[in-house]
Amino acid sequence: MMGxxxxxxxxxxxxxLRDGEQSPGATMSHAEKLEIAGLLDExxxxxxxxxxxxxxxxxxxxxxxxxxQAQTAVICGLARANLNDIDRCWEAxxxxxxxxxxxxxxxxxxxxAIPNLNQDEMADRIHETVTHARNLCENVQWSPMDATRTExxxxxxxxxxxxxxxxxxxxxxxxxxxxxxxxxxxLIRMLLEKVPGADEIIFATHCHNDLGMATANSLAAVxxxxxxxxxTINGLGERAGNTALEEVVMALxxxxxxxxxxxxxxxxxxxxxxRRVATVSGFPVQxxxxxxxxxxxxxxxxxxxxxxxxxxETFEIMRPEDVGLTETxxxxxxxxxxxxxxxxxxxxGFELGDxxxxxxxxxxxxxxxxxxxxxxxxxxxLMQDGTDAESDxxxxxxxxxxxxxxxxxxxxxxxxIDGSEHQVEASGDGPVDAAFNAVKALxxxxxxxxxxxxxxxxEGTDAQATVTVRLEEDGKIATGQSADVDTxxxxxxxxxxxxxxxxxxxxxxxADRPEVSYKDVS
Length: 522
Ligand code: KIV
Ligand code: ZN
Description:
14 strands; alpha/beta; 39% helix; binds zinc ion
């Protein structure tokens, strides 16, 4: 069998927990970050960017805990171009088996203007900070933020400085998602040709998806010589997000004939981690998303279904099982037991501990009482229901809504707030409006509703509704989700779930350290 040279190996750098978590509304709890990091490590991700340690004590603790638990992956933290940030980052990652410091500064004219540094002053800062990072850690990544809008000569100059100062990986971010694939390739080629020492380090590509070209840009960069792809699960990330891990990995696998590069990813773990990230981030996956969308392997039209039955390859370029989607015929209902539920959930990619199974089983029984047949989609919705965590400050205890043609819409609600029970009656323009007004009456807040979205999980009038609610308060955004056969209950739960997440964000930003964003580079 022909072996593959190191030249063919593309390393996967996952930044779901840093760039992904940075996207408005996608905050994850400490436990959730640890869980996702464990799944990333297990699926063979080479480098996990676990967070931005200086951003908050919570971020620091999460990076430190992930560093301590990681088995195989390199654990990386992000730091701005100052010694303080880099020291804090090193503190967080230093106990990892394989730590990395990732430091960056915006090098384009627009970004140089923010800290008001001229080209020479910025070059000195890069030399100083990369040298400092390298003195702490032998694995250092440096990024010229907004590289794709930086002057070519200046980019070559600063990349050379970073390499000489000891950076072992140079990441070239398309921070604003402006580049087209040809330019992405040309930029890597130019750096490899012009920068002394470029052949000694690894070039990485980090693409945002503002024009929907992130995956194409990443692959073009690889064809030009980049050997690290930065990406996130489900393409989570600032604005339109980042390159999606599942897209680049599957593209390299399926089109290995024209892109002969290897990754170390176990693709059968993709579906499971995609679902978990959708749940914990509160960002549902769009139905027609490549690889992980609900419709990615669904065949609707008669011609397609007929073709599929004769030969799956007529309309499928990869097998569902390649990404961890299994088809099982076990239909669940109210007589199904705990073992069947566990086995079914395992098939769907969810591995549950005994306590979690106990909790899910209770909710499954409640659902099975309401619905004759519980389909795979129902169980996935149940697992993605982001409500009722024990630690939630606000919990819905009871809800009764009256509505109908010509009738007033009134919600009677009982909710616990920090453990004590409160009741109210409120009215509104419709049943959902009345329920939301009841929540507001019980828990006063200034959060504005930015998104309210209802989807039916399966067909039929007994289908569960999955509801997504996005709230904004003082520039902070939080998304909540819930699923129930009763649309008003699902809506109210999703609203309360978003409020609980907003409360966590409030608490985080009220911590001793101010929350920083990489845009405040100074
Ligand atoms: O998009 C970007 O430029 C970044 C940097 C911090 C690498 O996320
Ligand atoms: Zn980014």
